[in-house]
Design brief:
Keywords: Membrane, Transmembrane, Transmembrane helix, Transport. This is Amino acid permease/ SLC12A domain-containing protein. By secondary structure, the protein is mainly α. The chain has one domain: Amino acid/polyamine transporter I (Up-down Bundle). It contains 23 helices and 4 strands.
Length: about 550
Amino acid sequence: MASAKPRLIVEQDDSRGSMPRWEQLSRRDEYSLSRIGKKQILKRRFGLISTLGLSTTLMLTWEGVLVYFGFGLANGGSAGLVTSFILSWAGFLAIMVPLAELASMAPTSSGQYHWVFMLAPKRSRVLLSYLTGWLSVAVWQSIVTMGGILCATLIQGLLVLNYPNSYTPQGWHGTFLIWATVILSFVVNSTFGRWLPKIEGFILYLHVIGFFALIIPLLYLGERVSPVEVFTTWNNDGGWSSTGLAFFVGIITNIGPFIGADGAVHMAEETQNAAVVIPWNIVITVVFNGLLGFGMLLVTLLRAGDVNSALETQFNYPFIQIFFDATQSTAGTTIMVAIILVLAYCATFGQFAGASRQLWAFARDHGPPMSNKLLLVDSRSFLPMNAIWTTCIISLILGIINIGSEKALESILSFTISSWEAAAAIPLGLLLWSRNTGKIEQRRRYSDISVETNDDIPLVWGPWRVPEPFGTLVNITGLIWIIISFFFSFWPSSVEVTAETMNFSIVLTGFWVIFGVGYYFTIGKRYYKGPTIETRESRNNLINRSG
């Protein structure tokens, strides 16, 4: 498919000053891809608002604060929740800012594994790149499943609320509800894929409106809790040796809502002016979602009423009990929870899109099994339909886990966090090494660039960059936070571990890494040589003419 030494040339056009704005941006996008050896294949349908809608809403930050509320109260208490949110917010911003710099250098849907190949030493870059791509695929596929589990358990919580004497949640009920969520996301990403940017832009407004639709009733109707109590109460219900250790065990509560902040990265080849829009999108997403999440956390804690009653609720999630205690109305609580449910469904649309594009990009470079099928793009819609179908099938299979474990959401959340952190740590570490060894050149103006092999691709800062020494300081801070959150992502919720309370993420993560490394050395390394350099002919071969 890809020639060993194809030649790509981006020609400087001295007349670009008189070009229309859209044509200048189009040429800039083509230049950015050509400089790293890629040809434009997917349609650039996304702009700043639509990408912001996709990345902001798929994270479910303020909604996630409510969902994982109970776990943080048990390990850390209300004071721990507030403190860990601030730390997680700052830590994730420190992670995402260097990733935004990399997205500006190489705005490609491949994301982290492509950047690792660019930055790593020649002897190790293929293996490190492959491992990063392997982890990234797992992250995004599990995010889709996690979104389905959330929707399913919210519906089950509403059924218990409305039919307390006649409905008992069953694991297989949840599996069917997960499947319904996945199938809906598949339809939106396939049948309505061309209109996904408009859909995501509309969902962004729902995301903000829904926030105020919940926060206002809570402020007016919720039972007031003293601010002193909120900011000074520390809990250690897990039985850990110290409250400080309990606090670190509970930080997963506020790490989960920020996972997926790199969603826009995997839509880079469908975004206009990607080298600028994607980095700004990443930063705005973390800042904006952090503000909404922190606001929701404070209001919920200050209007939580009887916290012990909320923790012992039969409605799956403590926040449903808090809503019910505040409104004293089944109908009112149902409406409030339904708002979160609708947004959770909408989030899976963006999660599904990010997962399918990540899988498609990795297949384009011959990473996963069956790459020759997964890399094909439909000639009519210019969507990676095989990758979309595969994402659907994988999520349906993973949904079966819910039958045997009511803690599936927690285990998959921990697995997602550990895998995401590992996939982010590798490019951040290599970026820190590269920026301090002078490997990255200053930004170039548009010029003739020929790319014959991966060795010829220059490391050049993009138009979005943090000036030094702040860039290095932020980079170091991000790596420190990754180490902390990665370590505690494997911990169970209490000292006394049973089959029910066990955190199986270490098993899942270990299996996936070992399986990936084994596949690479037995089969993968024969096909994966790093990001491929594409010619016009190889670009045409990616289009599924039979579609």
